Structure formats: structure tokens, C-alpha cells
Amino acid sequence: MTKTYGELNPGERVLLGPGPSNVHPRVLKAMATPLVGHLDPDFLEIMNDTMELLREVFQTKNTLTIPMSGTGSAGMETALVNLLEPGDKAVVCINGLFGQRMADIAERCGAQVITVEGEWGRIIEPESVEDALKGSGAKLVAIVHAETSTGVKQPIEEISRIVKNYDALLLVDAVTSLGGVEVKVDEWGIDACYSGTQKCLSCPPGLSPVTFSDRVMEVLRTRKTKVQSWYLDLTMIQNYWGKERFYHHTAPISMIYALRESLRIIHEEGLKNRFKRHITNSNALVAGIEAMGLEMFAQEGHRLPSLNAVKVPEGVDDVKVRKYLLERFNIEIGGGLGDLKGKIWRIGLMGHSSTKNNVFLVLSALESALR
Ligand code: PLP
Questions:
Q1: What is the pLDDT of residues 295-315, one digit of tens each?
Q2: What single-letter DSSP state applies at residue 303?
Q3: Cα 307 from Cα 268, distance rounded (Å)
Q4: What is the pLDDT of residues 136-147, one digit of tens each?
Q5: Is 341 helix (H, G, I), strand (E, B) or coil?
Q6: Distance, CA 73 to ligand 1 centroid (Å)?
Q7: Do 53 and 59 form a contact (C-beta atoms < 8 A)?
Q8: Is 98 touching ligand 1 by the criterion CB < 6 Å?
Q9: How much is the pTM?
Q10: Where does the record place the modification N6-(pyridoxal phosphate)lysine (predicted)?
């Protein structure tokens, strides 16, 4: 007996978790566009548009602003393997899961990692970054702008000034902020920044937009050792995205179609309107959550509009509630990670998923689950 396989038919979910978010129908349609070769003149134009539109969302003039093949972690790894050489010192700020991941990768690069530990749910204070930098000779400071594991939005500007005073490079994780929450790469003095397509850009997961300053380009030119990863070596990849258009690896054509379309949607909406929409919907959600007698988790004044962390009330079974939401309402929300397992819910309002309707839907569903 040969086994038969049915057509793909997953449930139609309202994606209000930590990512992926719902994908705009225009992006899904763009993905079905017939392929051209990855060196086709038409594709080269599509690459140019994509780089231009990416500079707009990153608010930068950096030439090297491209999507890396791979998810957000590929962007994280790209930044660290290219900027760090064995023996370099790196200050890594940790107040959530993704800071921990950066420290792990930096260590794998052979760097001496100096960690700045902060309480999960609170921001990293600029003074603690300065304390870590003092006399360290660190080459790099790495920090997460939007900590998806806690819902904290980290202020970057003051830390950037400190990092510059110590002549170090600033690396920022903007996976859960880019395209939904303001990220000003040039104005904030960020040297390296990466994101992911599946959050506020509302594309499927699969690309990691990155941008690097001229200072980083100089660091790349003067490296003493080869970048440990062949696949993520920017010195080679920039020759594909630059004027030379040298083959490095086959670009994921359909994903680049998708990203270009999602960036075109952002361009049409306008960054200011988009940020405002994310703030308005998050404020409405928080008002509803608090009206239900529930409490937000992240430090007041530093909450992310794209990821809203809510404390699970005493005596409530986190998993049961999430299962109820999924089975009854087709809504996905996230649970807590690490020490926060069972203690918070993470409600994403990202990109195409950040709508007034979704706010009402998730509030009513939660209310029904807790009744
Ligand atoms: N950084 C942050 C802040 C994230 O939220 C994530 C994913 O959720 C990542 C990095 C890693 O991205 P990915 O899971 O796409 O590899």
C-alpha cells in the first residue's frame, strides 16, 4: 500500500505571537512570481530596489545594506563573525534570551566576552555599559533594541554616545523593531544592525536584513584572519550585492521578491504612520489588558509596541489558555522563555498583524479563556 499525502492545509491562524506575523496578501502574491536567474538583469534591478528600500526602513545611507540569506540569527551571526576576530574583546548586554544568544556566538568567534547583565524585563542602564567598557579595550558593544523574550524596548542613543567615547563599534539587534518601531541607524550612531523578515516586515521567515557603517567596512578591510564562516563572509557577499555582481551563493529569489513587496508596502504607508499604528494598537491592547485586571510585565516607559508581555495571573495555567486561544479562535500568542516560562504571555502586534480588529479579537478571546 502506498501512502498518500493530502494537500497542504494548515489552519488559518491569526498570528499574534513573537513571530512570524501574518503575511500581507500582496507579499504572498509576489512570492508566486515566476523565477528569473539570480544574475538576470531584471533581478539585478530588483536587488537595487530592495537595497534602496531597506536603507529607508533602517534610516541609513550605508552602502552595505542587504538581506542575508537565513533567519534573524543569520544576521546576528553575520555581524559577529565579521566584526570579531579571535582574541578581540566584546561587551555583550544581556537582559533576555537574545542577548544570551549574542554572547554565545561572540564566544564561538573566539572573542573574550564581557557581559553586562540586566534584570529580564528591565532596560540595560547606560552606566553599566560604561563600567564594562572602562579600561577593557573592547572592540564592540552588542545590545538588543527590541527584546522579544521580555517585551522591553532598549533606548540606544545614550549608550551609543558612551560606546563612541571608548572608540568601540555598536551592534544592535533590531529583529522585533525594524519596520514597526523607530530604528534610526545613522542618527543613533549604530555601526551594525540586523533584523528578520518575519516580524514587523510581515514577510515569511528566511531573510535577515543587515546594514553596516563605513567604520565596519574599514574593520573588514583590515582583518588579520579570514572570517570563520564562508557563507556569511561579507567581504565576498558584498561583491554580489555591489557593482561586481559576482556569484557567491544562489540568492533566494522568491524571498527577495517577498521582501521587496513588503518594503514597498511600508514605503506606501510611510514610516511615521506605521510607527504610529503600532503604538496606537499596542496602547489599546494594554488598556484592555489592564481593564481586565491583568498586568504588563516590561518596565513602564520602555515597553515595545510590537511585543506586549503580559503577566500570567496567579493560579492560571499558561499552556491551557494558549491552547484555548488556538483551538477556539485560531489565535497564536507566545508563552514565556527560560525563567519566564509559564509566567508571561507574549502578544505580538507586528506589521500586518497590528490591527484594531486583532486587538479586539485577542482581548475578547483572552477574556473568554479566563472566565
Ligand atoms: N533576535 C531577536 C530579538 C529575536 O526576537 C529573534 C527571533 O525571535 C532572533 C534574534 C532570531 O531570529 P530567528 O529566529 O529568525 O533566527
A1: 999 999 999 999 999 999 999
A2: B
A3: 24
A4: 999 999 999 999
A5: coil
A6: 6
A7: no
A8: yes
A9: 0.98
A10: 199
